[in-house]
Each structure stands twice: as C-alpha cells, then as structure tokens.
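User: Could you go from structure to sequence for me? I need the amino acid at each position, not a summary. Structure tokens:
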C-alpha cells in the first residue's frame, strides 16, 4: 500500500498514466448502452441455443431408449403394445 511522503513522486509514471487515460476512446452514454445491450442479446441467444440443444438431445435420447425398449418387448413377447 502506498503511503504519502514515503516514496518520491515520479513524474514520468504520471505522464504515462495520463497518456494511457487519454488514449482510451470515449463513448457517449447512449452508444455505451446500445453496445452493452447488443452484447447481452448475443450472449442470451447463445445461452438459449445451448439450452435448446441440450433439451433436444435429451428428448432424442429418451425416444431412442423407448424405441429399443419397445423392440425388445416385441422380440421377447413381453407386454401388449
């Protein structure tokens, strides 16, 4: 932690920090909000697609298991279908 007066100030570091801060592009609040909302919408779309894919895979897996179970029942003569 920095303690005032313990370390001599270095103006070169201060200048580099000011150059760094002034080189960051400035956005007006409306543009920032639009960019943020756009990125959130894209993230939400990916999340929904991921959940949809998982659900579809689970349904397909369940259907496959049922088809095999029915085929086995028909083969063994167990149960009336």
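Assistant: Here is the amino acid at each position, in order:
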């Amino acid at each position: 932690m920095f303690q005032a007066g313990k370390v001599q100030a270095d103006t070169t570091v201060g200048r580099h920090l000011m150059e760094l801060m002034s080189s960051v592009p400035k956005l007006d609040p409306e543009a920032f909000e639009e960019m943020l909302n756009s990125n959130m919408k894209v993230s939400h779309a990916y999340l929904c697609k991921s959940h949809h894919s998982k659900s579809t895979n689970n349904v397909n897996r369940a259907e496959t298991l049922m088809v095999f179970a029915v085929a086995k029942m028909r083969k063994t003569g167990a149960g009336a279908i």
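One structural detail worth keeping in mind: The radius of gyration is 31 Å.
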